[in-house]
Each structure stands twice: as structure tokens, then as C-alpha cells.
Design goal:
By secondary structure, the chain is α+β, with helices and mostly antiparallel strands. It contains two helices and six strands. The two termini are 21 Å apart.
Length: 150
């Protein structure tokens, strides 16, 4: 895999509702872009199969941290490329890193989230199943985040 590419990428068009009074994407909206990419990644990689059979209520994850660094404004109507990849596995948690590029290839933003495997019934964290680790490795190979995220 190209070391500058992310293992999972989607395109998102900036909608009118995403912009603020200054005419660019509001800072909080970037977390929604990350969330969209995260959910698609998890549905495709953690739960491969028929997306019509996937139930978000069964998703055993809880988000515990989110960060974003803003590098360039995104504008109304621009199509953004949002990349996501799993960069670290812990015992019960894992990190996802994100990169948003503008149509011209400029770095718009990058970020990270930390997720924990979580049983909502017992309200407790649990170890990441080996099957998920294997599915991620099969999908991403030895991918590492680009060093250019700064």
C-alpha cells in the first residue's frame, strides 16, 4: 500500500449546513466527518458482510477521546477526501487516525479518536476480540500513518 494513502477513504461534499458565518466549515463539523468515516470503516472492516444486516445498536464501541488539528479551511461545495486507519491496538482500546484532504490535495485537517470495546448491557469494557485484530490486519496489512501529519 502507498505509504501516503490511508487504508480506508471516503469522499464528503461540504454542504451549506456545514459552514459558519466566516464561510468555511465549522470546526465542530470535522468531528462529524471523522464519525462518518469511522462508522463506514467499522461496518466494512469489523463486520464484513451484508450492510443491510448491520445494526448500529449492536456496535460494541464507545468513543473516549477525539482530537482534531485544523490546517486549511474547507469551503462550501468542495469535495473532501477523508481517510481513516487503525494505528494502535491496546488490550481493550484502539486508536483511529484521520486525514482530510481538499480537492487540490492540500491538508485540511487531521485527527485521532480512541475507542474502547464496550458492553452496554454490563456497562464494562472488554478485550478486543482476536477476530477483529485479524480482520484489521488482513484489511490494512502493515499500514502505518504517514509521517507528514503535522
Amino acid at each position: 500500500m502507498d505509504s501516503d494513502k490511508f487504508p480506508y477513504e471516503i469522499k464528503i461534499e461540504v454542504a451549506f449546513r456545514d459552514i459558519d458565518a466566516m464561510g468555511h466549515v465549522n470546526n465542530a463539523v470535522f468531528f462529524a466527518y471523522f464519525e462518518t468515516a469511522r462508522m463506514k470503516y467499522v461496518m466494512d472492516v469489523f463486520e464484513p458482510g451484508d450492510p443491510n444486516e448491520f445494526d448500529l445498536l449492536d456496535m460494541p464501541l464507545i468513543l473516549v477521546e477525539a482530537t482534531c488539528s485544523y490546517k486549511s479551511p474547507a469551503l462550501l461545495g468542495e469535495t473532501l477526501q477523508v481517510g481513516v486507519g487503525l494505528s494502535r491496538f491496546g488490550t481493550k482500546s484502539f486508536d483511529l487516525v484521520y486525514r482530510i484532504l481538499g480537492e487540490d490535495g492540500r491538508l485540511v485537517a487531521f485527527g485521532q479518536t480512541v475507542q474502547v470495546m464496550y458492553d452496554y448491557g454490563t456497562r464494562s469494557a472488554y478485550a478486543i476480540p482476536d477476530e477483529i485484530r485479524k480482520q484489521v490486519e488482513a484489511f490494512q496489512g502493515g499500514w502505518q500513518p504517514p509521517q507528514s501529519l503535522n
